Amino acid sequence: MDLSIAQMMTMQQDLYARHAGQWSPPEPEYGKEFMLYLVEELGETIGILKKKGAKAIVDDPLTRQAFLEEMADVLMYYHEILIRFHVSPEEISAAYIKKHNRNMGRDYSGEYAKLYTGGDNIHG
60: which of 28, 56, 86, 100 fits an S-S bond (Cβ 3.0–4.6 Å)? Predict the structure, then answer.
């Protein structure tokens, strides 16, 4: 099975419909809350990595299951954020492809070298 962005967003909309009276509306002013929830869930994945280690995530079925559950929560909140900002699956897909294509042509080593040696450094 391989879920598409559209399928995941539809699943979140279905979940919202089930809890509409209890959850904040899918509107932009509530997007910040869901960004914080996403970060919290990401922190839980980091906690598993810190406490159990990368090898356990790969080799231990229980650790892997816990890690994947938290990563699924991250994705769920990610899609909640997109929904709250009225982003369509097509929009995020186009942005992702555009960014990927840009990244494919980047010189990361050169960019970081300039950043940390003072050349073209906009941060300092």
Answer: 56
Q: What is the CA radius of gyration of the chain?
A: 18
Report how far apart, in Å, the C-alpha atoms of 1 and of each of 4, 7, 65 are: 10, 12, 17
Angstrom distance (rounded) from CA 26 to CA 10: 13
Rounded distance between C-alpha atoms, residue 56 and residue 105, angstroms: 35
How do residues 43-57 score in pLDDT, each as one tens digit? 999 999 999 999 999
pLDDT of residue 114: 83
Residue 21 is encoded by which pair of tokens?
């009276």
State the pTM of this model. 0.84
